[in-house]
Structure formats: C-alpha cells, structure tokens
Amino acid sequence: MGGPAYDCLTNPLGAVRFSFVNALSSGYDPSSSVGKDWGVVDLFRHYFSDESAISQVPILDSSSIKWIQPKTLVRFRGMIQDMLGNEFYAGAYKDGSTWKTNKYSDVSESPEGSSSEMQVWERRLLYCVPVPGQNQWTECSSEELKNRFLNLDGQNREKRVRGDEEMTDSMDLNNAEAGLNGSPFKRMKAGEATSSASESQVLGTNGVPLCSAIPPATSTDSLPCLVKIYDSPESELKLNDVVEFVGVLTFDPNAMMDVDDENSDDLSEAESVQMPSGKVPRLHCLVHRKLETQHFLHGSSLLTEPKSPQIFREIRESLMKYLTGLLGNDHIAAQFLLLHLLSKVHGRVDNVAVGKLSLNLIHLNKESMSIFGTKLSYALKSLLPFTQSIPLTIEYLNTASLGPKKDYSINRLVPGVLQIADGTHLILDETELQPGTLNSVGVENAKLLKNLLECQKVEYDFQYYKMEMATDVQMLIFSEGKSNIMPADLVLPFQPSQLNSLEVITPETAEAWRCYLATCKSLSHSIGQDLQQVVENDLVAARQTDRSLGSQDLSRLLTMARMMSVSYGETTLSLEHWQMVLELERLRKERLK
C-alpha cells in the first residue's frame, strides 16, 4: 500500500476530493445537500488542532505571493474591509454516474454536453486587507516562512501518490514541529530591561526602531485578498473583524484580464465585485479564527501559564522605567500612560463605552512634540500590534476622508481612515493646529473624531442612511492646551525634567512587555464585597469635595482602578491599588491648577 494520497498542506484539494468520495460512500447526496459540509471542516480543524501545524502554513502577503504556488494551503491575516454578498457556483456535477465537486475552486469543471447533472451552491465573498497600522514586529520573516514551506513541500512531494484514483483511507496527520518561541519571561529578569547589545540585536537606537509600521491598507505594497466563505453562519464574521483565514490559494499574476474559457463558470463573481485575479488573489476558506492581540505575539507563555504577581510586578517595573525615561522622567505621566495602554471597552451601557480611557497630554508644542512625541510614537509602534497617527490640522480635517462611505456605482464600501480594527492605538497630534475655518468636510470629520472618542463608535455613510459601528480604539492626544476638538477622559499637563537618550531594548525584553500588555488587558476584574463600601464612601466624599464631578468622572476612577489592578496581574481590587488611584488623581488635579 502506498503513502497517503495527499497532505493537507501542499495538496488541500486532494483532501477535499478524498473526503468527498468518503462522504458519498456514506450516503452523502449532493443533489439535496445544498453544499453542506461533508467533513472537510472537521478534517482541517483536526489537522490544525496543534499550533505547530498552523505555523507550517505560509502567510500570504505581498512578498510571499511571489513564491507560493496556486492550489496550495495559505494563511491570510487581515481585517474584513467589505462584505460583498453571496455568489452562486457550480458546486457538484455528475461525470457519468460519479459525482464530483468543484467546492473550494474558482473554475467549475464539468463534462461536455448538456446532459450533465449539476448542482448550484452558494458562498460568501469578503474583501479583506492587511490590518491598518499593523506593525512589522507582528509578522514572521518571509524568507523563514519560504524556507520552512519549501523544505516541507519537498518532503511531502516524495511521499505523495500522484493520482486521485490511488487514494487510500490512510491519512497522514503528522504535523511537522514548528517550535513556538519559549517563554520570554524566562529570558528576562528584573533589572535586565536594558542592554548594551549590538545594533543588529536591538529593537531600536537613536529613537528609531528597526521595525517600523508597514504601509496602510491603501498602499500599493499591501496585498488585499478576496476570501470565499463556505459553511459558516453569517453572524460569525462581521465588518472590521481581524481574522486568520486558512484555505486554498488561487492566484495567477500572469492571468489575462479577459480570458474566454468554455469551461469557465457562468455563475462566477458578479460584475460589481470582479477584481483581476492577477492583482487580488482568491482564498477559498477551509477554517478560520478571529485574532486577538496574543495571536500576534511570538511568545505567549504569560497568556497560557499561571504567573505569580511577582512576575507582573517585575515586568511592570521595567516597563515603567522605560516609559518614564521616554517622557523625560515624568513619572506621573508614565503612570497615566500605562493605565491608558491597558484600557479596553469591556461593556456598554446605553451610549457609554465602559472601560475606555483616552488621555490628553498638554503643554506640548511643536518643539517638544518633535522630541518626546516622536520617541513615544516609535515606542508604541514597537510595543503594540496596531498603531495609527492623525495630524489634527485645519487642512487635514478639511480634506481627509475619515468615515467609510458606500459607493453604489461600484457596490463597494470605500474605506475611511477611521475604519480600523479593535485594539488599534490612535495618536492625534494637535500641536500643529493653527487658527482657521473648518469647511463642511472638516466639521463632519471633527464630529466623527469626537464621537469615536466619547462613544467608541464610527459613523458609516450608506448614502441613503447612516449607521454607527461600535469599535474599541485607544486614543492619545498631544496638544498645547486642553483640546477642544477631542475632550479626553484624562487631561494631564506634561512636565518633563530632562531629555534622556533612548535606551536600547533587546528583542527578549520587548517581547516580554508585549506579552505583559496583552495579558493584562485580557484579565477579568471585580471589586470584592469587603472593598465595595470603601470605594462607595470615597466616591461620595470626592463628590462632596468637588461638586463639578459628574457620573463620568466617577466611572473614570473605577476604570483607573481596574487598570491599576490588572497592571499588577491582579483580578480583584485591593485597598492599596485603590489608594494609588486616588493619589494619582490628586496629583493630576494639582497640575491642572
């Protein structure tokens, strides 16, 4: 008996056909199934149940598309930018008395002659792009993936049986070990946050990191992808979700725009969504998963292994030292910045996004922004997976397209700057704002930004109506005085005492900080019954002392308390951390006097 008839990685369509034949022998009827899954999804889910198997699948991007072969298995990590509706295709047909399938393929094959029995099935189309603002440290080396894939492909090609007719029930589900990186915390001890490593080993020097942000999704260098979805409920995926799709690649960069093929599917993509296959590859999705921040980390031990509070304290201390140095030894600003970086929307009550914590650093002008703002911006790119920056100038507001709009002439959603993924960090620089007049576009853009900041919602213009989409974006504002355009949750005067040279950070330390931030954000939190009364009494006392405090101010204090607790790796508020929050708030108000 020969080896396996296919392997899931380099011959996924062989796996599809193999499982289809098995399903037919078990009573599967294509004429009444309406294309329902016959076991393909479970087959690939089982194959990818081990994370090391997923790591063997090459990631599709503008670099790897040059060497990845069509009809092989690929991963595409991106954001759903548009949902193009459904398309019909010839899913199965009879060749004589034998049923065959075209599922997970672009071209529908069928024998010549009108007597062929054909079943028309349906699939969904998603237009996906690289996540806007995705930073390069989140990506695997294209050369490393290429070598890994080509080596594995060569091994599997020797094992593979050439013809489908030689298929056997034996299936090779042995996964090649990818070897995820070990724990970053085992390589980092307290006090080792900085190093004198050589320039080739460090994250960045002279204020400029070696890994900078990749071009935005609108760049000609980024690679969009048309993903075709099968056997998945419509409610499972929504606009702006960040998803990893694993499926069969169909792509021909040499394909002509208009090819007359008698075997082509007459029920192919509607004209309104046609895109040249040589420019926009197709991915026929077999399995998919929504991605969180931890999926972009190269080491995720803190997310999967229990850690003592001491580990959190050590990493927190090293990160705080780094942030304080960036901010000219302004320790208070560094404390508020850390709480801001750990914030996320964890609930909504009416129109209030619970958990958001926007920060406005004031007393920054053009000169200080070019020093501290630039350093901080680079540092955040090195720590967070998605970062974006917006210059708040009259010219920009009057000309930019911030909100997404539907263009019915091409039946496409035209993206705006604010169509970004949850978890994105957004810097708004108001230091170059000059007196001027906003036109109608500028007024609308200012409203969009303010609504995003206050409600964590972005308005989409569908021409005949407008719809708000909920989002979760961290917003950091730099300005000379308190921003009137962007009324942040926290306003803090920035008071640096000296200009520090940028510390050299080793990759291991940066990786530990990234895991720390992602883990803290993922922690649940509660206030124990023994402390609830203390917190309530303190809030009542604060309101009696300052009558200007509103419900939003009190809610902000509770959010800060949550962030303070999780920053130490704790899920229940302690009296110590609550008092730390009250003291930080007192110091902030003193600066505002």
From TrEMBL:
The keyword Nucleus applies. Residues 157-201 are annotated as: Disordered. The keyword Transferase does not apply. GO terms for cellular component: nucleus. Keywords: Nucleus. It is found in: Nucleus. GO terms for biological process: DNA damage tolerance; DNA-templated DNA replication; sister chromatid cohesion. Coiled coil: none annotated. Pfam families: MCM_bind. One of its GO terms (molecular function) is chromatin binding. This is Mini-chromosome maintenance complex-binding protein. The lineage of its organism: Eukaryota, Viridiplantae, Streptophyta, Embryophyta, Tracheophyta.
